[in-house]
Specification:
This protein is α+β, with helices and mostly antiparallel strands. It is 20% helix and 34% strand. Strands 3-2-4-9-6-7 form a 6-stranded antiparallel beta sheet. Residues 33-212 form the Beta-mannosidase-like galactose-binding domain.
Length: 864
């Protein structure tokens, strides 16, 4: 019986007030994890995000997989199943929310997930986010989350036999087969990063693990599921955008959508928009126009600044923010211009109306274990790309869709991103389950990345199309299955991926494959589309063959070298210091790599005197090769509008095509790239009986300058000299001076002279300098020069080193005998009598006296 007094009080109080709306709550689940091999008793602490190999290494249960040939002992890891678990606490407030989802942002790869012993999801794709509604399985207090990873090797072992034919198209089948495995490679059959289970430049270590963060999301009234800014028009006066706010509601109610836009300076760029919204159950998209006055445009590096706007959307109900989402955007126009011309059909990126010559390199994952790549390492590598005057990186289709921090940094640094979908060098199953999986992968990745101004193009795959045309793939498949396999290829790359982009990101060009001419010109990749060129290195064509290639866009070409001795010492012992040793062969993934490198080296150089000298000469050879190709491509602007060499970075150490080694040290090629990708390049070139002095400019305005050409002997005597004033045309390449070779040499021995070309601005500032030799290094008798050095301390962390010599010193390499330091310039030619100043940033606390003692100066003459 209710007391009368209680009834009276209740009546006076009126009806009960509705519960206050609850904001979406996100609980991270990255702590308290442990792991073990399935069937074993002992659990070991684990790190999430991470993988089995790094957890085993942290626990001291395996040796460093990248040291010496340890990977050969660790193949068992990919052949067994593993399990992870953690216990987390749920509060009553979380369970009061109407919806609770478990979110794995990345599972590698075949995983069965249980929550409190109830199965909640199964994954088979490391490139997707995985979600499961788990409120029924949760309870207040401790909850047990368990993930069992099945061996990828076991998972796909029977699929080729089941299909009746092999889908593999690689040009080096052994390089794609896991060490110790007799069966087929994994690549076609699993949505897993191919580089992790073997390529011709990485270890064959089959990983499993929770490689991206894990969280619980709880919400009741509504949540935001996506925020997308669509740029409609952009002029100097105004930017017209549409804000697409996608939400999911649990019940019918009225709320307010708040939109806040802040400019690059952090100040409001537009008054805050408060728009009433009638929420209805289900998923919906709200379209809100946004207009920005006097917009600041985003430019690629070298063409302008990279201003970024921040847009924040919030759903507000009764004064409570239910959920919010933020996007950082850049305002720019971008197209890939493909117009018929006298050479065929152009392929050039045009940003804000400016035709951009793409200068850059291919990007591979920066570690065999992606969780080890910190934001600091991403920044170090991408800043190095910008420091080398690059404006584009190509995310290669055999790696991973990179982490958000990678694209954020590219936005900040002005590095355009050529983005492959993760398909490479093979053909794929055509069943509905595989295609459905890929559709969800592509949709997730496109929606994740489409707001980045740096993102320039989507590309279906790496070299699949050329595999069919040139790698004898139809014969490998067999006549009975050719039509089916090619039909599946077209369904995947001509239908499925383009349909996803039409729905999610119609603003960017989709390109079916790299290289490709979009099926328009199969006879010649020189006239249409992009090109990969590997007859130098992968073939045995001479370096001069680079200059026979004039494609519309060169998206891949490369040459190999070893890292420097300090880096080799991090994965090998002195007893291994021979490229024929088992350990050095293990760190050379290309079967023909060492013989081929020696063959090319002996064509142009003398035999190095010892192992350290070989490492140095291999880097000089690589730098000479790519310089030859890159300058040729730039000289042929506008016919050629892109040069992306293979590759910027490395994932594990050893012989590599990278210009920065795994440990972050710049190779000779990275220093050379800084010069051959300079905004203004002087490039002397022999053409028949004429030496032509080209100047290539990426500047957007004319540059008044002065060109000076000198022919010197190795002791500094001037044998020929000519100077003239220039007006360097913007965005062009042209020869400004032609000199008959006979007039230039005047009978002097071409093996004993160097041509020096310099371009200075009107105030005397050096714009660009280059040297040219008339004979290969092995035919040149360089003098044994003495280099004088002086030091000047500029501040606590920066020193200036000045070098000078009375004789020519070629390919000067500066290093420290102890400790590391970064030389801003290196691997340069020191001309007789000409001072060269180099900035050095050594380890903190290093004194000038220590630097004088530790400095080592090496040059080409010292290597033989």
């Amino acid at each position: 019986m209710v007391p009368l007094l209680g009834l009276a009080i209740a009546a006076l109080a009126g009806p009960p007030k509705p519960a206050a709306p609850a904001a979406k709550n996100t609980q991270t689940l990255t702590s308290g994890w442990r792991f073990r091999q399935v069937g074993k008793e002992t659990w070991t602490p684990a790190t999430v995000p991470g993988c089995v190999h790094t957890d085993l290494l942290a626990a001291g249960q395996i040796p460093d997989p990248l040291y010496r040939d340890n990977e050969l002992q660790l193949q068992w890891i990919g052949k067994v199943d593993w399990e992870y678990e953690t216990t987390f606490t749920i509060t009553p407030e979380t369970l009061q929310q109407a919806n609770v989802e478990l979110v794995f942002q990345g599972l590698d790869t075949y995983a069965d997930v249980t929550l409190n012993e109830v199965a909640v999801l199964h994954s088979d794709n490391m490139f997707r986010e995985w979600r499961a509604s788990v409120k029924p399985q949760l309870r207040v207090g401790p909850n047990r989350l368990h993930v069992r990873f099945r061996s990828p090797l076991k998972e796909v072992a029977g699929l080729p036999a089941k299909a009746g034919f092999s889908l593999y198209a690689g040009n080096d089948e052994q390089s794609m087969t896991v060490v110790g495995e007799k069966g087929p490679p994994l690549s076609p059959y699993t949505r897993k990063a191919p580089y992790q289970y073997g390529w011709d430049w990485g270890p064959r270590l089959v990983t499993s693990g929770i490689w991206q963060p894990v969280k619980l999301e709880a919400w009741t009234e509504a949540r935001l599921t996506n925020l997308h800014l669509v740029q409609r028009t952009l002029t100097p006066e105004r930017a017209e955008l549409t804000t697409e706010v996608e939400y999911e509601a649990g019940a019918a109610t009225t709320a307010t959508l708040q939109l806040e836009t802040r400019g690059p300076d952090g100040q409001l760029a537009h008054p805050t928009i408060n728009q009433p919204v009638s929420l209805t159950p289900g998923r919906h998209v709200l379209m809100v126009p946004l207009q920005l006055e006097k917009p600041q445009r985003w430019f690629p590096a070298g063409y302008g600044a990279q201003p970024l706007y921040t847009v924040t959307a919030q759903l507000v109900l009764n004064g409570q923010a239910l959920d919010k989402s933020t996007r950082r955007i850049g305002l720019r126009t971008l197209e890939v211009r493909r117009q018929a011309d006298q050479y065929g059909k152009s392929f050039e990126f045009v940003v804000n109306g400016l035709p951009i010559f793409a200068k850059g390199a291919n990007w591979i994952p920066a570690d065999i274990f992606p969780n080890r790549v910190t934001p600091g390492k991403y920044r170090q590598l991408l800043q190095a790309a910008k420091a080398a005057n690059m404006n584009m990186v190509r995310v290669w289709g055999g790696g991973i869709y990179e982490n958000d921090v990678f694209y954020d940094l590219c936005d900040e640094l002005g590095l355009l991103v050529w983005q492959d979908f993760m398909f490479a060098c093979t053909f794929y199953p055509g069943d509905n389950a595989f295609f459905s999986n890929v559709r969800q992968e592509a949709t997730y990745q496109v929606r994740r990345l489409r707001h980045h101004p740096s993102l320039a193009i989507w590309v279906g795959n790496n070299e699949n199309e050329v595999a069919w045309q040139d790698w004898n793939m139809p014969a490998i498949i067999g006549a009975a299955h050719q039509k089916q396999v090619w039909g599946d290829y077209l369904r995947l790359f001509n239908d499925l991926l383009p349909s996803v982009l039409r729905e999610q990101d119609p603003s960017r060009l989709y390109w079916p494959s790299s290289p490709s001419a979009n099926y328009e010109d199969l006879a010649s990749r020189q006239r249409n589309g992009d090109m990969h060129y590997w007859a130098v290195w992968a073939g045995t064509d001479p370096l001069s063959a680079y200059e026979q290639q004039v494609p519309r866009f060169m998206s891949e070409y490369g040459f190999q070298s070893f890292p420097e001795l300090k880096s080799v010492q991090q994965y090998a012992l002195p007893t291994d210091f021979d490229i024929a040793s088992p350990v050095m062969r293990q760190h050379q993934r290309s079967q023909a790599g060492n013989p081929r490198l020696l063959e090319y080296l002996r064509r142009d150089f003398r035999e190095p005197k010892d192992f350290p000298a070989f490492l140095y000469v291999s880097q000089v050879l690589q730098a000479h090769a790519i310089k030859l190709a890159a300058e040729h491509l730039r000289r042929n602007r506008p016919r050629v509008m892109g040069s992306l060499y293979w590759q910027l970075n490395d994932c594990w150490g050893g012989a590599s095509w990278s210009s920065i080694d795994y440990y972050g040290r710049w190779k000779a090629l990275q220093y050379y790239a800084r010069r051959f990708y300079a905004p203004v390049l002087v490039s002397p070139h022999e053409e028949g009986d004429t030496v032509r002095i080209y100047v290539v400019s990426d500047r957007t305005a004319p540059v008044p300058a002065r060109l000076q050409v000198r022919l010197l002997d190795f002791n500094g005597k001037v044998l020929y000299k000519q100077a003239q004033a220039l007006q360097i045309d913007p965005l062009t390449s042209r020869s400004y001076l032609d000199i008959p070779r006979a007039k230039l040499l005047q009978g002097h021995d071409p093996k004993q002279v160097v041509l020096s070309c310099e371009v200075q601005e009107a105030d005397g500032t050096m714009l660009t300098a280059n040297t040219h030799y008339f004979a290969p290094p092995k035919d040149i008798n360089l003098p044994a020069a003495r280099v004088a050095t002086t030091w000047k301390q500029l501040n606590d962390s920066t020193f200036q080193l000045t070098l000078k010599s009375k004789q020519l010193v070629r390919d000067v390499n500066l290093s420290l005998a102890q400790g590391d330091g970064f030389f801003e310039d290196n691997y340069f030619d020191l001309l007789p009598g000409q001072a060269r100043r180099v900035i050095l940033r050594p380890a903190a606390g290093t004194t000038a006296a220590e630097l004088r003692q530790r400095l080592r100066v090496q040059s080409l003459v010292d290597a033989f």
